[in-house]
Design brief:
Elements (H helix, E strand, L loop, with lengths): L3 H19 L5 H34 L7
Helix pairs in contact: 1-2
Length: 68
């Protein structure tokens, strides 16, 4: 894991799954929070990937040696 966004996505994903498992069929609050946590985990994973891509772009832009 390269940045904090991936770690937060992992924690949100685990929390969402736990809430969905603990919440029963009639427990709307836990089910809604679980789905929301999983959605947030997906967004954080996407943010982490965007940070990685921007880091690769920055490293390539600051590379002073020409590639052959």
């Amino acid at each position: 894991m390269h940045n904090l966004a991936y770690r937060l996505a992992l924690l949100a994903g685990i929390g969402g799954i736990v809430l969905l498992v603990v919440g029963g069929p009639g427990d709307d609050v836990k089910n809604t929070l679980g789905v929301t946590a999983l959605a947030v985990a997906g967004l954080l994973a996407g943010l982490g990937k965007a940070i990685d891509v921007l880091g690769y772009v920055r490293d390539g832009a600051t590379d002073s040696e020409p590639r052959q």
